[in-house]
Amino acid sequence: MNQTHPMHLRPLTPIEARVLGTLMEKARTVPDSYPLSMQALLTGCNQKTTRDPVMNLTEGQVAEAIDELKGLALVVENSGARVPRYSHNFMRGVGVPEQSAVLLGLLMLRGPQTAGELRINSERWYRFADISSVDAFLEELQDRSEEKGGPLVVKLPRAPGAREQRWAHLMCGEVDMSQAAGGAGASGATEEDVIALTRRVVMLETEVAALQQTVANLCAQLGVSPDGS
Predict the structure, then answer these.
(1) Per-residue pLDDT tens for 145-180?
(2) Any idea which fold 6-215 has?
(3) Measured between alpha carbons, how far is 148 from 7 in angstroms, rounded to an integer?
(4) Torsion of CA 54, 59, 65, 71, to 10 degrees
(5) Average pLDDT in the 90-104 region?
(6) Residue 188 has pLDDT above 50, yes or no
(7) How many degrees, rounded to 5, is the angle at CA 213 between CA 67 and CA 101?
């Protein structure tokens, strides 16, 4: 097993997890723009959608996180291009299969989720056959031996009014169970309500991503920056 597993060294900071998760997401959702430039990575980290919590990072914070992640063999800088570009090395660095990496990336970006939510949110990353397959990979990550680096996810206590338990990642260390238990379900929404709403959000996110790509392509043709500068 690759001994560069980050949990053998130290937990990630929230900013490092956001940078890493963003690289993992964009590698799958916008492969034509990947590896990412610093500006594209910064924009992805600070997205207002599909992020929990929403962050407002500076370029300096992202650059510092990249340096740390490079030291952990989780991020690679692609040299040779006019502008430095960055890619992730998550599966090899952590020692997990593709499906497990997808689930961890989603948890790092969106916070705790049920297996059903993870299956829906992963549609643009990887298509799981059913919820039971998601559960199987989550349980494998939860039961990971100490020899391999220990558990990478934890199943949270059932929240008030919730039918399903949520999962959280452990890439940033242990989770505060007392806070996590009250984080969802208090509204009384059923799992079916959450899934229906999540499907709607995923559809809208896909449309927004397509529009953003169109704008980026037009700006590139016109030789202007998307922010108007």
Answers:
(1) 998 889 999 999 988 888 899 999 999 999 877 665
(2) Arc Repressor Mutant, subunit A (1.10.10)
(3) 9
(4) 150
(5) 96
(6) no
(7) 45
**pTM for the whole structure:** 0.76
Residue spans per domain, the chain = 6-215
pLDDT 10s digits, 3-51: 334 446 589 999 999 999 999 999 999 999 999 999 999 999 999 999 9
Nearest to 73 by CA among 25, 128, 121, 6: 6
Q: Is the pLDDT of residue 183 over 70?
A: no
Tell me how far apart the alpha carbons of residues 94 and 91 are, in angstroms, rounded to a whole number: 5
DSSP string computed for the chain:
--TT-GGGT-PPPHHHHHHHHHHHHHHHH-GGG-SEEHHHHHHHHT-SSS-SS-----HHHHHHHHHHHHHTTSEEEE-SSSS-EEEE-HIIIII--HHHHHHHHHHHHH-SB-HHHHHHHTTTT---S-HHHHHHHHHHHHT--GGGT--SEEEPPPPTT-SS--EEE-TTS---HHHHHTSSSTT---HHHHHHHHHHHHHHHHHHHHHHHHHHHHHHHHT--TT--
The two three-digit tokens of residue 185, written as one number? 């379900």
